[in-house]
Specification:
The chain has helices at 41-59, 87-95, 99-116, 132-144, 159-165, 176-182, 225-235, 249-264, 295-300, 312-320, 332-354, 367-378, 383-401, 409-426, 438-455, 459-472, and strands spanning 6-9, 14-17, 25-30, 63-68, 76-77, 85-86, 148-151, 154-157, 198-203, 219-221, 239-245, 269-275, 278-280, 283-284, 328-330, 474-479, 482-487. It has 488 residues and is α/β, with parallel strands linked by helices. It folds into three domains: 6-275, HUPs (Rossmann fold, 3-Layer(aba) Sandwich), CATH 3.40.50; 288-426, no CATH class; 438-487. The strands form six sheets. Strands 4-3-11-12 form a four-stranded parallel sheet, sandwiched between helices. Helix 8 links the parallel strand 11 and strand 12 (269-275). The chain is elongated and about 90 Å long. The structure holds one RNA strand of 74 nucleotides. It is found in: Cytoplasm. It catalyses: tRNA(Cys) + L-cysteine + ATP = L-cysteinyl-tRNA(Cys) + AMP + diphosphate. Residues 372-439 form the Cysteinyl-tRNA synthetase class Ia DALR domain. Its main location: cytoplasm.
Length: 488
RNA sequence: GGUCGGAUGGCCGAGUGGCUAGGCAGAGGUCUGCAAAACCUUUUACAGCGGUUCGAAUCCGCUUCCGACCUCCA
């Protein structure tokens, strides 16, 4: 925990030294998915980015409570007025299913994808439907403090009143006049006092499936409310990090801050962290644009955009090769480059794990490399620079393995610590070898047969074995010490 | 239209006043029966035009192009 970590804060638009409110404890809240359809790859990028932060904070000694919600109610379809319809309820009607069936299906799907991408589970994963009471209580407080008003069973947040004493645009950097002048006029908003006002609680129509009783009648919570209520419940009214996708800044997080300030008098988080978008041909990947594709399509290659499938770890590595605040453009060429790079890194790691020979003397010092790895991550979680350093480590490992470089036991030990810390713990990368215990024995036997053929200069046979294994997906490497194999 | 952000070599992608980012691809070499892998060497760059500076990809201004948000979105 002796690291000086700098984090880019959207509030100040600067990198700031990270100082937890109550070290070594860190509270981190990340806006999770709305579970009304499959997560797409862009969503995955965001959660991989926050997983990286969670892992690094933990690796440098912090005790992190990582809260990531699942929004299973209240998320509006269409505009923010009462014309909107609950996304989950809408899908349920179409599919002739109970809303909670939809929620269950996509929650399970989301968790499965998170797991294959090797994202650690958050400490707490609260749901909106599980916190209706907390949300109603928050609406009551905001009403009491005078920042909200009720119209016919729906409660709205009064943005213009709030902005008289507070700064509504503190996060987005926009001032209220600009917002008022540039907001498009939408229908169905007659009952709102101001056009920026948003719903805290929404009156349910009779046919609405997901609804709860409240002091204002039967209804359901507004979209932004659950994050305010749940972050407060599990992290307190003032915690360290609040994160989400960059597209949440102007509306969701702006409203969230307003709700918390109105309710508790304080901006809930010291550091607001936002991840950038995944693009396809330069355009944001999104459900509404129709250019999104699903994780399993990427893994299997079953999408017209894709030349082939890529393993989950290749996808993770691809995303970590870009900084979280840059847009990342998806492409087949880039994916293939990452696939090969990832393999190179993991091959070196495997050589290290299998055991390298230590010498009495050393020609390399690992300590400076270790420092550079920490420095990269301390600079706002700069994983691409970290990965560049890990390729330097790989070069050292390969050279030692080839007998071209000497390393002593102390430095070898440090190199092992470095690779384990950064590849496994921080980046969350893991080998994807087929988990079949018999396979290595069979392969070793075949390799042995081939070595016999080679010794007899029966190259026709030895090449046939090598080419055959290559087609199945195993690569043979001949060297003076003998032949080794690896999964291609 | 308003607000904000971006433009880096064949591709992806770091960097931010002077020192090689890195990966993939390309070229040459070492090794090998031949390969592959690995190692060594190496080509291609900072959108355009001005300005500040001893020195700018990096700072400032303008131009062009692209994107995000303003409406549900990670």
């Amino acid at each position: 925990m002796q690291q000086n970590l700098f984090v880019y804060n959207t509030l100040t638009r600067k990198k700031e030294l990270f100082k937890p409110i109550n070290a070594p404890h860190v509270g981190m809240y990340v806006c999770g998915p709305t579970v009304y359809s499959d997560v797409h790859l862009g969503n995955c990028r965001t959660y991989i980015s926050f997983d990286l932060m969670f892992r690094y904070l933990t690796a440098i000694g912090y005790k992190v409570r990582y809260v990531r919600n699942v929004t299973d109610a209240g998320h509006l379809e269409g505009d923010a007025g009462d014309e909107g319809e609950d996304k989950i309820a809408k899908k349920a009607k179409l599919a002739q299913l109970e809303p909670m069936e939809i929620v269950q299906k996509y929650t399970v799907g989301f968790r499965d994808v998170m797991k294959v991408l090797n994202n650690l589970p958050p400490s707490i994963e609260p749901t909106a439907t599980g916190h209706i009471i907390e949300q109603i209580e928050m609406v009551k407080v905001i009403l009491e403090k005078g920042y909200a008003y009720e119209v016919d069973g729906t409660v709205y947040f009064d943005v213009e009143k709030y902005n008289k004493t507070k700064d509504y645009g503190i996060l987005s950097g926009r001032n209220l006049d600009d917002l008022l002048n540039n907001t498009r006029t939408l229908g169905g908003q007659e009952e709102k006092h101001g056009k920026l006002d948003f719903a805290l609680w929404i009156k349910a129509k009779p046919e609405h499936l997901m609804k709860w009783p409240s002091p204002w009648g039967v209804g359901f919570p507004g979209w932004h409310l659950e994050c305010s209520a749940m972050s407060q419940k599990y992290l307190g009214s003032h915690f360290d990090i609040h994160g989400g996708g960059l597209d949440l800044v102007p509306t969701h997080h702006t409203n969230e801050i307003a709700q918390n300030v109105a309710c508790c008098g304080t901006n809930p988080a010291n550091y607001w962290v936002h991840t950038n978008m995944l693009t396809v041909n330069g355009q944001k990947m999104s459900k509404s644009l129709g250019n999104s594709f699903l994780p399993h399509e990427l893994f299997s290659g079953e999408n017209s955009i894709l030349n082939k499938g890529y393993t989950p770890m290749t996808v993770r590595f691809f995303m970590l090769q870009a900084h979280y605040r840059s847009t990342l453009d998806f492409g087949n060429e880039a994916m293939e480059a990452s696939e090969k790079g990832f393999k190179r890194l993991m091959n070196a790691f495997a050589l290290l794990t299998d055991g390298l020979k230590a010498s009495a003397t050393t020609e390399v010092e690992i300590a400076p490399l270790m420092e550079r790895c920490y420095a990269a991550m301390n600079d706002d979680f700069n994983s691409p620079v970290l990965i560049a350093e890990l390729f330097e480590a790989s070069r050292i490992i390969n050279s030692v393995y080839d007998g071209k470089l000497k390393i002593d036991a102390a430095n070898l030990e440090q190199l092992t610590v470095l690779m384990n810390t950064f590849v496994v713990d921080v980046l969350g990368l893991q080998n994807e070898q087929a988990a079949n215990d018999d396979l290595p024995k069979v392969l070793n036997f075949i390799v042995d047969l081939r070595s016999g053929a080679k010794a007899n200069k029966d190259y026709a046979t030895s090449d046939k074995i090598r080419d055959g294994l290559s087609q199945i997906g195993f690569q043979l490497k001949d060297s003076k010490e003998g032949t080794t194999w690896s999964k291609a």
